[in-house]
């Protein structure tokens, strides 16, 4: 697979929201719905206004994944691979790209019930720091941090 990671374009925001929803739904934590899709479509431009730098993995014109970074906060906010592209090391490619954008330190959060995701981040060198309830969703979030040179 030859996915190219590149900055997202404004005309792709609806498609990015769909990739985000499909990736999120694939965790089994929420059902796909028009309501969820509308909510994510509304969030994309709002989050960009609040500081997101948004990237996509483009596989010959098809959006295979979305990656949202908040660079000033050293924060990997969202990384979702569309189900048709899962299991092809695209997540690892996106994380390697993230480390080029945030080379010294990265923070992220995972929903506690999304065990597949947080176990993957732990294997990639992220260290668990704390759990907190996210007031907007009610989900318990596991907070992680990666620091260059940290071999723990």
Structure summarized in a few sentences:
This protein has helices spanning 13-25, 34-49, 90-101, 115-123; strands spanning 4-7, 53-59, 62-70, 75-81, 105-111, 127-133, 140-147.
> What value does the average pLDDT take?
95
Number of H/I helices: 4
- Bin the helical content: 25-40%
What structural class do helix, strand and pairing data support? alpha+beta
> What is the ordering of alpha helices and beta strands?
EHHEEEHEHEE
* Spatial strand order of the main sheet: 1-2-3-4
Rg from Cα: 15 Å
What's the β-strand tally? 7
Topology:
Blueprint: E1 4-7, H1 13-25, H2 34-49, E2 53-59, E3 62-70, E4 75-81, H3 90-101, E5 105-111, H4 115-123, E6 127-133, E7 140-147
Antiparallel strand pairs: 1-2, 2-3, 3-4, 5-7, 6-7
Helix pairs in contact: 1-2
Structure, described:
With 152 residues, this protein is an alpha+beta fold. The chain contains 4 helices and 7 strands. It has helices at 13-25, 34-49, 90-101, 115-123; strands at residues 4-7, 53-59, 62-70, 75-81, 105-111, 127-133, 140-147. The strands form 2 sheets. Strands 1-2-3-4 form a 4-stranded antiparallel β-sheet, with helices on both faces. A hairpin with a 4-residue loop joins strand 3 and strand 4.
């Amino acid at each position: 697979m030859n996915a190219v990671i590149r900055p997202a374009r404004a005309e792709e925001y609806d498609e990015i929201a769909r990739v985000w929803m499909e990736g999120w739904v694939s965790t089994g934590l929420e059902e796909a719905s028009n309501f969820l899709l509308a909510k994510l479509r509304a969030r994309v431009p709002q989050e960009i206004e609040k500081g997101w730098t948004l990237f996509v993995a483009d596989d010959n014109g098809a959006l295979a994944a979305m990656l949202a970074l908040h660079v000033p906060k050293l924060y990997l906010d969202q990384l979702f691979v569309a189900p048709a592209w899962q299991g092809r090391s695209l997540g690892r490619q996106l994380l390697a790209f993230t480390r080029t954008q945030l080379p010294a330190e990265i923070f992220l959060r995972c929903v506690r019930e999304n065990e597949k995701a947080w176990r993957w981040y732990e294997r990639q060198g992220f260290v668990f720091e704390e759990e907190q309830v996210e007031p907007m969703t009610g989900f318990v979030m596991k907070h992680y941090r990666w620091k260059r040179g940290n071999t723990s």
